[in-house]
UniProtKB/TrEMBL annotation:
<keyword id="KW-0805">Transcription regulation</keyword>
<protein>
    <submittedName>
        <fullName>MarR family transcriptional regulator</fullName>
    </submittedName>
</protein>
<feature type="domain" description="HTH marR-type">
    <location>
        <begin position="39"/>
        <end position="139"/>
    </location>
</feature>
<dbReference type="InterPro" id="IPR036388">
    <property type="entry name" value="WH-like_DNA-bd_sf"/>
</dbReference>
<dbReference type="GO" id="GO:0003677">
    <property type="term" value="F:DNA binding"/>
</dbReference>
<dbReference type="Pfam" id="PF01047">
    <property type="entry name" value="MarR"/>
</dbReference>
<dbReference type="InterPro" id="IPR000835">
    <property type="entry name" value="HTH_MarR-typ"/>
</dbReference>
<dbReference type="InterPro" id="IPR052067">
    <property type="entry name" value="Metal_resp_HTH_trans_reg"/>
</dbReference>
<keyword id="KW-0238">DNA-binding</keyword>
<dbReference type="InterPro" id="IPR036390">
    <property type="entry name" value="WH_DNA-bd_sf"/>
</dbReference>
<dbReference type="GO" id="GO:0003700">
    <property type="term" value="F:DNA-binding transcription factor activity"/>
</dbReference>
<keyword id="KW-0804">Transcription</keyword>
Amino acid sequence: MNENVNTIINYIGDMLNRDSINDEEKLWMESHIKDHEKAYNLLKKLKTSDIHLISIINRKGTISVKKLPKLSKMSQPTVSRTIKRFAENDILNRYYKVQNSKETVVALTITGKIIAMAHVDLEKQIYKNLDNILSSYPKRDVDTFIEILNKIKNLRV
């Protein structure tokens, strides 16, 4: 087998395996909200998918729960369970629309916003780090790299 293929597979595997309860990104976020004890303690228990759902809600403000599965690429039951857990932990508030009492909408609490803003800051830091790396390469090389990544992303067995 081509040694480059092995290297790429190993690098991608390493990147995916970093996504755990105590991954680098989460530790970075924890270090930036340690002064907010409640948010800090909750963040330690959150999965990456939880943090991404909080970020979506933060970007949208008040949002219908019905819209979250499509935006988050999570199933409706998973979103419902997660929203229930978030409400129980004071990460968000659930409301019913006045016009339609069957439609649930959610909005982040202060605690949820603290977690969301730590994620926004993390994304800015990642962007800055990637920009620093890419800026040292010619545009043509970066374009080729992006093209290769896109082909890997779309690879089907």
